[in-house]
Amino acid sequence: MLCVNNLSLGYSGHIIIEELSFELASGGLIFVTGANGSGKSTLLRGILGLTKILLGEIKINKGIKIAYVPQAEAERTEYNFPASIREIVLMGRQRPFKLFYNSRDVQAASYAMTRFEINNLDAQLGQLSGGQMRRVLLARAFCAEPDLLLLDEPCAGLDASGREIFYDYLNDLRLKYNTAVLMVTHDDNLNLKPDKIINL
Ligand SMILES: Nc1ncnc2c1ncn2[C@@H]1O[C@H](COP(=O)(O)OP(=O)(O)OP(=O)(O)O)[C@@H](O)[C@H]1O
Ligand SMILES: [Mg+2]
Prior knowledge:
Elements: E1 2-11, E2 14-24, E3 29-33, H1 40-47, E4 53-60, E5 66-69, H2 85-90, H3 103-115, H4 130-142, E6 148-152, H5 160-177, E7 180-184, E8 196-199
Parallel strand pairs: 3-7, 3-8, 5-6, 6-7
Antiparallel strand pairs: 1-2, 1-4
Helix pairs in contact: 3-4, 4-5
Residues 11, 16, 34, 36-42, 71 line the site of adenosine-5'-triphosphate (ATP).
């Protein structure tokens, strides 16, 4: 699914991650931990092709569905984005060259919104609290039924009920779709058992 080989990442010549190698198989779960600034988000962005590779390689199976939930503070870029919560979650069903959503897409998005207990479907992004925003981004990623899910501190800002929904739903995705998960986390009180922990 995902194979990282001797990977070095950084910004303008400054190396943040050096010679990292690991593999993530279908249905696998890897945690990424480490101090603030150690390069956890950089690693996810590198896998997504958003950060230039300095050395090494990243191999991802062709044609797989990838979903990404960015870290909390990175996502509030445009408060007045002209789309409702309903439409933003539905974007999780978007695919390259796909022009329209079908009833299955609408159904999957509705299911994810119900499961994350998102009620204000006609609201806009800027009208939500931090935890509500997190639920929307998680619902958008989860309704994609992805093969590979990249999560950057997914529980940040979630209340106890939100965390429980997140863990149950994540386990369901892994069982049903064999989703591989790479998850940045500082939380050591998790009811998930990772195959591997990468400490940056
Ligand atoms: N766009 C950028 N340009 C230059 N340097 C950057 C950029 N983004 C991040 N960095 C630097 O790269 C290092 C790693 O940042 P990164 O965001 O990956 O850390 P992190 O492990 O996710 O930290 P946190 O736990 O705070 O989320 C930091 O020193 C940061 O200053
Ligand atoms: Mg980070």
